[in-house]
Amino acid sequence: MFIKAIDSLDEGLNVFWSDNSSSCYPWFWLRDHSESEEDLHPDTKQRQIDSFSKSVNNNISKVWVDEASESVYVKWTDQSQSCLSFSLLKSMENPNLPQSNAIKLAKIWNTPSEINMFPEMSFEELMGDEGIKTWLTHIQRIGFVIVNGAPATSDATEALMERMAYVRNSIFGGFSVWDNKLENPDDTAFTSLSIEPHTDGTYVHDAPGLQTLHCLKRDSIGGENQLIDGLAIAEKMRNEYSDAFNILCNVNIPGRYIKPDTYLEAHRPLFRVNDNGDVIQVSFNNHDRAPFRLENEQMANFYDAYKIFHNLANDRSRQFEFMLEPGKVLTFDNWRLLHARSSLTGYRQLCGGYHNREDFESKLRAI
Ligand SMILES: [Fe+2]
């Protein structure tokens, strides 16, 4: 992409692109977004220019395009100079509120049969040079990935998780090993009971982005895991139950986690949407929902909407069922998929932990 022509107007610089598009960038915006070494630290990419302490004189002395460096230069009458790359200008061509792209390439699935190219790979591939890209892309596309052939040890599982980023700390600790025989379990996850479809961390402001689980030892019957694409339910509700969808986008539902000396609580709508109306986070845990009350009519409408979501999430035809076994490491997007578990008898030992959402997004941008 190159610039065909520029035109200095009172309100800003009009740039005409080779694809025949054009955009007028305000003068103050150009100065504030300068990428010159003085204005933007070349290593940290942190803004150095002080755009606000003194009122700057935005009179222009000269504006020119330098094809060699693919940049636009502005010389101001106060002798300072701004420099902006074609790529920055092009990426900012259309005014748009900041967006995250982590969910943009999602291929939603209503039933397991709609999962194209099953998201699995070998441990060896993941730990190799290009493996992380495949791993991330599977999660971005389908919402989960299964790594086969992993050594059934906590060390190997932790190394697998750290291939992406550091493991997040939470009320349950960081990377953890647990079994279903704890004397005083502080969550149903650490028991043999069944658990309904849910997302983790509805009681924290920043729910875990990814969750990884690996069963290290299994001498049990039952305990299958189910995964459900919450994004697919959101789109179905948007299309078929639009009033209910809107309610679930707007009602802040409290989640809580209580144990001695701890009382976590956070509030979020079941569907969090961005400025474009795209669903960027699904939060649902009926077990952890805290008491709350709306006006009676609103409450009744909320219950109706919540019930629709609940019943769709519990529809077995929407659930991908998977048995955690030694050697198979499951990682899923906790902002998109719901997970559930059947009850089990016998013994099993698991390990795993969480990753932050921003670290998942960071790696997606960086690869
Ligand atoms: Fe969970």
Order of helices and strands: EEEHEEEHEHHEHEEEEHHEEEEHEEEEH
What is the count of β-strands? 20
Class per helix and strand makeup? alpha+beta
Sum up the overall morphology in one term: elongated
Low-confidence stretches: none
Q: Can you count the helices?
A: 9
Strand content: 25-35%
How are the strands of the biggest sheet laid out side by side?
A: 7-8-18-11-20-9
The helicity comes to 10-25%
Which descriptors would you attach to this protein?
367 residues, binds fe (ii) ion, four-stranded antiparallel sheet, six-stranded mixed sheet, alpha+beta, 20 strands
Characterize the structure shown.
This protein has 367 residues and is of the alpha+beta class. It is 23% helix and 31% strand. The protein is built from nine helices and 20 strands. The strands form six sheets. The protein has a six-stranded mixed β-sheet. Strands 10-19-12-17 form a four-stranded antiparallel β-sheet. A hairpin with a 5-residue loop joins strand 15 and strand 16. Helix 6 packs across helix 7, helix 6 packs across helix 8 and helix 7 packs across helix 8. The longest helix has 18 residues. It is elongated, with a radius of gyration of 25 Å. It starts with a strand and ends with a helix. The model has no long low-confidence stretch (mean pLDDT 94). The site of fe (ii) ion has 4 residues, from loops.
